[in-house]
Amino acid sequence: MNVSGGLAVVTGAASGIGRACALRFAREGADLALADRHEARLREVEESILRLGRRCLAVTCDVSRPEEVEQLAARVLKDLGGARIVMSNAGVGGSGPAHEVPLEEWRGVLGTNLFGAVHVVTAFVPQMIAAGRGGHLVFTASLSGLGVSLPFMAPYAVAKAGIVALGESLQMELEPHRIGVSIVCPGLVATRMSEGQRRPWALKPEVLEEKGMPPEEVAAAVVDGIRHERLYVFAKTEEHLLWMLKRAAPSTLVRFLGRYGRSKKVMKDLQGPVGEEPES
Length: 280
What we know:
It contains ten helices and seven strands. It is of the alpha/beta class. It has one domain: 3-Layer(aba) Sandwich (Rossmann fold). A seven-stranded parallel beta sheet has the order 3-2-1-4-5-6-7, sandwiched between helices. The chain is globular, with a radius of gyration of 18 Å. The relative contact order is 0.13. The C terminus is likely disordered.
């Protein structure tokens, strides 16, 4: 499917992967509808897209609230005529020992990351089916969603695993409507996700900046995935290899990731306690 000539909706578009994808879609010739909770950052992205000569609608929206996503979808249909590409990207981080993470945080992470994607699906897919033009859905998941996760990331990993399952189900259901699905599964990306976390077990923001891949690399992989209608999208070969290893030897990889994730080498990158196990 071609990216150019249609309208792309991107949630979580004010920074990180969402911002990079929105700008890449615009450069590829798409018009944009942007959504995010952070209005100031959102307006900056809107201005950048307008300077590229594309139409752009920017809407402040919290995807954890279904009524706000429904309002977003209604505005997109009324003002821009409906979307051909819809990218559910909005997400927040969540970390800590699974048995210690407060229930409120569990609900917050699942509410934004997983139910936010569900709300996007229920708001936009009926419009896409009714339009009869086909299209493409993109879900930002993670290697964590494919079971390649470090310890102390349970809320985030659970939400992303749900997104993977949602995307796989939709791929089977929507094929007769010529609506494709791509599930983006990056590893560490240099985003602002950890900025809002000032509690133990969250990655230090500078670690993401230093060790994460640029969001623009993910955006390039997303466009390529849409064009070739790939269900799973990886930005780097190493990510694909890790997923294949998980499928081939799941128990071995889980044990290795557990030991690696509890090592002092990794724990020093967290805002929380230093691990008690020796470096491995």
